[in-house]
Prior knowledge:
Structural class: alpha+beta
Oligomer: single chain
Number of strands: 33
Amino acid sequence: MASPRLRRVIFWTGLPVLAVVVLVAVWSWSWFIPLIERQASAALGRPVSIGDLDVDLGRVSEVVVGDLRIDNPEGYPTDPPFATVPRLALRIDVWEYIRSRRIVIPDITVDRPAVSLLARAEGDNNYTFGNGQTDIDNQTPEESAPPVIPEIGALRVREGRVHAKLDPLRSDMELKIETREPEGQPSSLHVTADGRYAGQPITGELVGGAVLSLRDENSPWPIRLNLANGPTKVALEGTVRDPLRFGGANIRLDFSGPDAALLTPLTGVPIPATPAYRLAGKLDYGEGAFRFSDIDGKLGNTDIAGSIAVAPKSPRPEVTAALRSRRVDLTDLAGFIGGTPEGKAKPAQNRGRVLPDTKISVPRLRFADVHLTYDAGQIRGQVMPLDDMHVKLDIVDGAVALKPMRFGVGKGRIDGNFDLAPDGETLSLNGRVEFQRVDLSRLMGVTPMGEGQGAIGGRANIQTRGRSVAEMLANGNGALTLGMAGGDLSALLVDLSGLQIGNAVLSALGLPSRTRVQCFVADMGLRRGVVQTKTLLIDTDDSLISGSGEVDLKAEKLDYALRTEAKNFTVGSLPTDILLRGTFSNPAVRPEMVELGARAGAAVGLGIIALPLAILPTIQFGIGEDHRCEGLVKRAR
């Protein structure tokens, strides 16, 4: 019979063993499900439920989760939920975490996951988790340290589906996701898309190459994408060394389509209307920005090269671009300066109006912060007196600074500096243009009838506000001062003024097709949309021509008169006013019919002979001393 001492030893030894046996017999990992659900729900900001949980402990432990469900946030339908996963299995290298605190997951298997992405027109969505503060770009370097990302070996997805209904993007499409593991070949990730995006049909296929080690930098991850969104085509092919961060990318990207404006919903960058285009280059990611570099493309008849970087910052993405063209056709860039590219349908305007009255979208200007420099080595066109171009554009929170917008003309240049600031639905504009010895022979060289020598100098300024180009001109205040020595009158009137009535004016004035200009001076004022003439004088070999009147930019009406005075007496030659009247869309040119005696009397006291002294600095500005203007200078004195 066992002694009391032995019985006590058996009791205290057997009790723990029995407890362990009983615990093992009834143990269930499901006991941890409520705890995991509570923590996951708090982290994601919406209910999370788990149907089953099993863990196989070991140096590399396996965790299997069954019937995982992540609900939509409050205010969204209960069904379908944000995501369901009938079975999720992952293996975790426990020993590696204990030794180095690295999270190493040799493989993940996701069976038949279903995800429903919803975004409403009001701006909210069901895929922003937690408190929604996902942007770290405005934090300090210490605060924005990257989170620990698990090192994933293999990812397997079987029969995955994503439904994306994104009202702000006018999108409703289905994505199918799966990995394929053909016998004897590496696995690959396949994603197909079908539906509508940005109101256009979309189809696409992405092949992600071997998904054996997403973080093995010695084995770049191949990727290939072909996408068609309406008429826009996108092709992408290359490798990525760090797919989870899109780092170390060596990718060739090609865009093509009939209008680059259709790229706005795909790229997140506001792009004006353009002619047909093709752009190709290298895509990479680094320093918080996607970079599209080594660009080689065509925009209509214009070649495009350079680089574009897009940083997805908050509250707006930041776009930095340095672009250049060897040869540019300005009609291809009309959309960037508020016009309509050739071949595109022009927006409807008020009947009988000429000035564009399409409203400028202030919210679109706030779509992104843009910093652009653009250089064109040669400007081409049917009638184009400009040689080259340099533009520096900055848009920050909707405020536009165009400083400078420079054009070369022969040995001279035209410099413009403009500031536009949003104010509600309108824009305030403050602009200044300087004409620096603009080569007249370069201007005349593009005309079929013009010859001339000399230089045009002067300046212009405008201050205004409005919602369209027409409204800004109608509200504008400013001035224009020009001076020129030498030239050809016919070419000047027909080509520089841009009026189709130029030939009619010359005929009415009784001038030959080519009349040499000794000197030209213009001093105009702009007040509340009305251009008023202070001085307009043209000194030719045979005549003096003066102009008076006004041009109403708001009503788009002309009320102007030109008078010619012969320098030498000619029998039957009397001064006659030529009237320019009517609207911009329907102008009329005719001589003013008055009694002969009244005209003769008017000729005696010509105001044109006694020019105001203020004209002297005007004709000297921008053109220097030139003997061809000495006649007008003497009259001024």
